[in-house]
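lol forgot to send this yesterday, sorry. struct tokens for the thing we talked abt
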């Protein structure tokens, strides 16, 4: 842990400047060995120093060297950053000299890992660092910054504090049951305090989901039996959107058939080719494939033909749809209606004609309102981005629910206390109050080299 690490922090390639970052006890003395200029050992902290990088007597490059002494640095260790000319050859040569003179090549994310281990940032803030680097839109940049700045971590810390107060009250009651001045914690009060915390957790979970929508978009599956007009609807949606994003690293492109930008939120239309494969059997809708897509998608657009009656297969799929979320599109309204929709009245229904390009705006409006798209773009969200943190938040909530359940079942208070303590610990794990080495190694290895 205490060895001095070095890595190229800028993207490796042709560029005006490259930055090589060094962190650890020896960073100043190692760079000093290959630097010709002022003695770096004696320069003030947080200073930028002009000079040359040399290999024995040979000048390699003209550079600026930033010296930042512990503890006010990103890793809380001594950090030196060498600004050299960009380009692969010079940058690699400087790095090579550092390695020869006693640095070890940093692992991916190792600077951020040290920042965490030395208490400079917590795990939610570390997620924020990664999200900020990966942010592609203004909205996702905003979200990442609020994670990075500690706002989200503070909310978690506040919840933990509230739990501590509940636990303290319980302890007082256990330790001094006969002490009359101390307010007796009634079971009712514990329940209501826990419920208030659970409400806050639910809000965080909801907002994290909205954050996910901002960062990753909404997975949409267009399903329906052959020839109802699925491809026509997709094409109409795609044609209308002139700003089709063609390259979105990180999204599951292999299954995405089309990408639409709806007021800044990305809709990833999932490929339903599998369903079309069965079109030789005209009435077969590919029920199993549809069910799989229903499982995978955030939103289903289920297409019916206005000119046709609803088949049994279609009814079977409709039963699996989510009434609050999914949309039934009745296509081909330019043709005679043979469709009885009385059984569908609880659903969001949009009537369109893909052929005549009518009703498409209404379809977009319904999608926007289902996901509250206009609002989420402008909200100040609490965003937990990693599956790990969300799972822990849910775990903490379950533990509180279990504590409430135990109280209602008149279980002894120390049993209740165990669940409440567990929920406090789960929240602590989110920010990394307690952690396992393996988890930390795995987490930081997802970072890029030099970060
Ligand atoms: P898919 O198999 O569900 O993808 O259906 P397609 O999009 O390939 O459409 C099947 C047929 O229906 C094509 O001949 C389309 O031109 C036609 N079609 C699609 N939408 C409409 C519509 O709104 N009205 C009419 N009359 N025909 C349509």
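and heres what i got for the seq, position by position
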């Amino acid at each position: 842990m205490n060895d001095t690490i070095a890595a190229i922090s800028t993207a490796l390639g042709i560029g005006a400047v490259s930055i090589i970052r060094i962190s650890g006890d020896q960073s100043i003395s190692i760079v000093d060995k290959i630097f010709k200029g002022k003695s770096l050992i004696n320069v003030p902290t947080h200073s930028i120093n002009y000079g040359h990088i040399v290999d024995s007597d040979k000048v390699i490059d003209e550079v600026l060297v930033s010296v930042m002494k512990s503890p006010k640095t990103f890793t809380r260790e001594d950090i030196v950053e060498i600004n050299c000319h960009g380009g692969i050859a010079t940058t690699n040569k400087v790095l090579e000299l550092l390695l020869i003179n006693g640095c070890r090549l940093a692992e991916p994310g190792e600077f951020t890992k040290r920042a965490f281990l030395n208490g400079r940032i917590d795990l939610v803030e570390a997620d924020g660092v990664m999200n900020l680097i990966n942010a592609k839109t203004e909205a996702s940049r905003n979200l990442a910054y609020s994670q990075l700045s500690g706002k989200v971590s503070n909310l978690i810390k506040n919840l933990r504090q509230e739990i501590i107060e509940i636990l303290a009250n319980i302890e007082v009651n256990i330790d001094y049951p006969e002490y009359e001045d101390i307010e007796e914690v009634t079971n009712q009060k514990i329940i209501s305090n826990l419920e208030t915390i659970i409400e806050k957790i639910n809000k965080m979970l909801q907002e994290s989901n909205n954050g996910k929508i901002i960062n990753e978009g909404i997975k949409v599956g267009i399903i329906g039996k052959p020839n109802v007009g699925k491809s026509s609807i997709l094409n109409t949606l795609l044609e209308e959107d002139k700003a089709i994003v063609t390259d979105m690293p990180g999204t599951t492109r292999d299954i995405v058939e089309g990408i639409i930008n709806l007021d800044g939120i990305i809709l990833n239309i999932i490929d339903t080719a599998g369903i079309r494969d069965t079109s030789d059997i005209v009435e077969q809708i590919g029920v199993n494939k549809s069910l799989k897509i229903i499982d995978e998608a955030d939103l289903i657009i289920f297409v019916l033909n206005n000119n046709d009656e609803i088949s049994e297969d279609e009814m079977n799929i409709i039963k699996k749809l989510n009434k609050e979320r999914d949309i039934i599109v009745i296509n081909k309204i330019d043709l005679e209606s043979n469709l009885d929709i009385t059984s569908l009245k609880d659903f969001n229904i949009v009537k369109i004609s893909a052929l005549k390009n009518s009703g498409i705006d209404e379809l977009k409006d319904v999608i926007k309102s289902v996901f509250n798209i206009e609002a989420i773009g402008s909200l100040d969200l609490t965003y937990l981005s990693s599956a790990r943190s969300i799972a822990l938040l849910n775990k903490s909530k379950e533990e509180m629910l279990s504590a409430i359940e135990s109280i209602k079942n008149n279980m002894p208070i120390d049993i209740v206390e165990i669940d409440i303590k567990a929920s406090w610990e789960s929240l602590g794990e989110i920010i990394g109050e307690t952690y396992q080495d393996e988890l930390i190694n795995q987490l930081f290895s997802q970072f890029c080299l030099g970060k």
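The two ends are 16 Å apart (CA to CA). anyway ping me if u want another try
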